[in-house]
Specification:
Blueprint (H helix, E strand, L loop, with lengths): L6 E3 L2 E3 L2 E3 L9 H9 L3 E5 L22 H27 L4 E7 L5 H11 L6 E5 L6 H7 L3 E6 L2 H10 L11 E4 L6 E3 L13 H14 L7 E4 L20 E5 L13 H8 L6 E4 L7 E5 L2 H11 L1 E3 L10 E5 L4 E5 L1 H12 L4 E4 L4 E5 L1 H12 L32 H9 L32 H9 L3
Helix pairs in contact: 1-2, 2-3, 5-6
Length: 465
């Protein structure tokens, strides 16, 4: 194993090891502070982060607004308070070591307001901002206003070039690094473009080499690239360390930090990770963000897959091969489908999937009555957690809507991520993970169900394993 030499990140020399900034309450002040205390980079999530009362008890978010717009404003206020709380916890637990970053999803509702509010309320406690899930053009301007380094998350050289040309060239001095996130292997939301095939993964080396070439053109030959997605043992990445073709490289870990003592996820979640097998993480397209994402295949994902299996195209009038009548809904309104699809639909209805829900793509999905009611209630209760949501048709604009029909093939991401992060049933909630998560069960480091501290994990990673 080559020597893992420290590099400058956010103005300080640290180990080139970075905690990935996972979403709602999954990387928090305690976990990120521990990473910083170990001489690395900790990253807490700024996505609807937990906040606490004067006794240190978590405040459960309860929305009082009658409209989505009112609830959206409440969510932003909660997000700011939570982000400040996590920054303070991280700062205190870091002991002044390492570096502390905050992760923001650009497509989350109120991203700019939350980022500005947290940076203002936690001045001097946050050293860097990582930001992805979209094209975060304004993250540079906002970070620069507070003298904080910024780290865009991209999955291609083309995406970085667009960001640099449009905005980042004005704030080049505070570009602390670029996070390359492998769109086929990383957990959570992935940056696959329309030109890339989710079934045909590309090796990261060539893509990162291309990213470095573009960065060099921009005068960023010595700006670190964080390799994220698929990183487990560093002895498998030795050809990246000290490689002049790639320049300074740090390694970002999203999945391995889930299984530490400081990780806030539930014991049930940790146990599930220890028993995953190859293929148990699915790259899917169900997210209401419209992005691909990777999660553990469990009852939650299986039910979403079932909705796709119970889907047929329809027409409002008899046309072409849509010549068979199918009554749907309580009023038995007629839609026109193919004879084959009519027989399929009648079979599903006989099995109890009696509720037909229309999608924006002129299709119908058949679900059980209890699931249809859950979907309806979740759509009504939308609090605008995304800038735009395919599931509820919310959009962060004056109209408060995308103008499209809500999509019952998706789900309320705020609800399920809050549930799974706070002790919910891991078999029936969305459980993000990277595609290497099965290696917990194979890695001797975790033998016998061993769960390390963050410091023990960092020390282990430095050895190459």
């Amino acid at each position: 194993m080559k020597s893992l030499d420290p590099i400058i990140i956010s103005g300080r020399e640290v180990l080139p090891l970075v905690e990935g900034g996972k979403g709602i309450a999954v990387s928090n002040g305690e976990s990120s502070g521990a990473w910083a205390a170990a001489g690395a980079v900790g990253t807490f999530s700024g996505v609807n982060a937990d906040m606490y009362d004067e006794n240190g008890e978590r405040i459960i978010m309860r929305y009082q607004g009658k409209t989505r717009t009112e609830r959206h404003r409440e969510l932003v206020a909660y997000g700011i308070r939570g982000g400040i709380a996590q920054a303070r916890i991280a700062h205190e637990s870091s002991g002044g070591q390492g570096r502390l970053h905050m992760n923001v999803l650009w497509e989350m509702g109120g991203a700019e307001a939350v980022l500005e509010g947290v940076l203002d309320g936690a001045r001097g406690l946050i050293h860097g901002v990582t930001c992805g899930a979209g094209m975060p053009y304004r993250v540079a301007e906002i970070s620069a206003r507070y003298g904080v380094y910024y780290y865009p998350i991209v999955s291609s050289a083309r995406a970085f070039r667009a960001l640099w040309k449009r905005a980042y060239h004005k704030y080049g001095a505070l570009l602390g690094g670029v996070v390359y996130e492998d769109p086929w292997l990383a957990g959570g939301h992935n940056g696959l473009s329309n030109s890339e095939d989710p079934r045909k993964p590309e090796p990261p080396y060539g893509r990162v080499r291309e990213l470095r070439a573009v960065m060099a053109e921009c005068g960023l030959a010595n700006t670190p690239i964080f390799m994220a997605g698929g990183v487990w043992w560093l002895n498998e990445w030795q050809d990246w360390i000290g490689n002049p073709e790639l320049g300074p490289i740090a390694f970002q870990y999203g999945t391995r930090p889930l299984l530490t003592q400081e990780s806030p996820i539930s014991e049930a979640w940790k146990d599930r990770l220890l028993n995953l097998k190859p293929g148990d993480v699915l790259l899917h397209h169900f997210s209401p963000t419209g992005f691909y994402s990777s999660a553990v295949r469990n009852g939650f994902i299986d039910e979403l897959c079932q909705r796709l299996d119970h889907q047929i195209a329809y027409s409002g009038e008899k046309i072409a091969d849509h010549e068979a009548e199918l009554p749907i809904g309580a009023r038995g309104r007629i839609v026109w489908v193919t004879p084959h699809d009519r027989e399929r639909a009648l079979g599903w209805i006989a099995e109890g999937f009696t509720e037909a829900l229309r999608t924006p793509d002129s299709t119908i999905v058949f679900v059980r009555p209890d699931k249809a009611e859950e979907i309806r209630i979740d759509q009504i209760n939308c609090m605008g957690c995304l800038s735009q949501c395919t599931f509820s048709n919310w959009a962060q604009n004056e109209a408060g809507t995308t103008g499209k029909k809500s999509d019952p093939r998706s789900f309320c991401i705020q609800k399920t991520l809050q549930n799974v992060s706070h002790g919910g049933d891991v078999e029936n909630e969305l459980m993000f993970a990277g595609h290497n998560a099965y290696r917990f069960a194979q890695d001797p480091f975790y033998a016998g169900g061993f769960i390390p501290t963050v410091r023990q994990l960092v020390e282990r990673i430095v050895t190459g394993q």
